[in-house]
Amino acid sequence: MSKAVVLGAAGGIGQPLALLLKCNPLVKELSLYDIVNTPGVAADLSHISTPAKVEGFLPADDGLKKALTGADVVVIPAGVPRKPGMTRDDLFKINAGIVRDLATGIATVAPKAFVLVISNPVNSTVPIVAEVFKKHGVFDPKRLFGVTTLDVVRASTFSAEVLGDVSLAPSISVPVVGGHSGVTIVPLFSQSSHPLPKDFSESSLQALTTRVQFGGDEVVKAKDGAGSATLSMAYAGAEFATKVIKALNGEKGIVAPTYVNLNADKEGGDALKKEIGKSLDYFSTNVELGPEGVAKIHTLGKLTSFEQGLIQTAVPELETNITKGVSFVETPKL
């Protein structure tokens, strides 16, 4: 039984994410933090007949510190969503500062917690959290995760649609590697548990890949200015948090794609760097989870030439995103 904390709990992702965690029998305590409305969200959730005790905190009276005290798992969906016409650069400028400040709180109050970053752009916000932790001398690469589960959920769902049976979606497993935005998202359909139809053309595969990569745009457009992918992201965030909590409790054999610091498992990380041909510090790949967080980083395995091309496109973009996150938090020279 764990204490889970949601930072950004009153927002479009935060509220449904908090609801799903309140319904999770593995969560004993649920702490909610945001700059507005959290006591109301907590009061609402507290009426649900599940075991988790819910509390909501605001910035006043050391709210962040109180929310984080005793945390086992901290999920961060805080920040602003992407609106139509907004570039990822616009998004970065706002969300980077929010994530840096929350990371400072975690580093000082709950440095041993598992930190699950949802705030976009994940390719840059995860390195921001890491750099803040390094400044406080508490960085453990095994405990920091970028949540890329929505890409996996989309790949499974869209595969089921292609196969003509949506009921297959929960049982379809497609590894999605690279990062968590646009061309850095690389779905490996050749390794899917349910192969695509034999007559599936290259152009159809390209279209399916693009749909996974830019699924967020599909939702932003459909919501017509009223939001982004909040409900599906909340579902994906809760799914990944559940996996982390189960691993924390000693359940074995849990493997999921997630964006991690490759030093979390040096052997696996070095093998992965060799595969992608670049010494990146962060990459999303299948990771085995354990009580200590990252137990093993898996390599990419056998790729098709199409997938190798996608990786080659993803790597320079990822490198730029990572550098942007690291340089946002100026680490003093020793």
Automatic annotation (TrEMBL):
Which reaction is this enzyme known to catalyze? (S)-malate + NAD(+) = oxaloacetate + NADH + H(+)
- The UniProt record lists the EC number as 1.1.1.37
Under Pfam families, the record lists: Ldh_1_C (PF02866), Ldh_1_N (PF00056)
Keyword line? NAD, Oxidoreductase, Tricarboxylic acid cycle
Ranges of residues in domain Lactate/malate dehydrogenase N-terminal: 3-146
Question: Any idea which positions bind NAD(+)?
Answer: G8, A9, A10, G11, G12, I13, G14, D34, N95, I118, S119, N120, M233
- Name the Gene Ontology molecular function terms of this record: L-malate dehydrogenase (NAD+) activity
Write out the GO cellular component annotations. Answer: cytoplasm
> Does the entry feature the keyword Oxidoreductase, yes or no?
yes
Which example biological process does GO assign this protein? carboxylic acid metabolic process
List ligand-binding residues for substrate. R82, R88, N120, R154
**Entry superkingdom:** Eukaryota
**Residues of the active site:** H180 (proton acceptor)
Entries under SUPFAM superfamilies matching the protein: LDH C-terminal domain-like, NAD(P)-binding Rossmann-fold domains
Residues in Lactate/malate dehydrogenase C-terminal domain copies: 148-328
Q: What's the family?
A: Belongs to the LDH/MDH superfamily. MDH type 1 family.
Tell me how this protein assembles. Answer: Homodimer.
> Which protein is depicted?
malate dehydrogenase
- The species this protein belongs to is Obba rivulosa
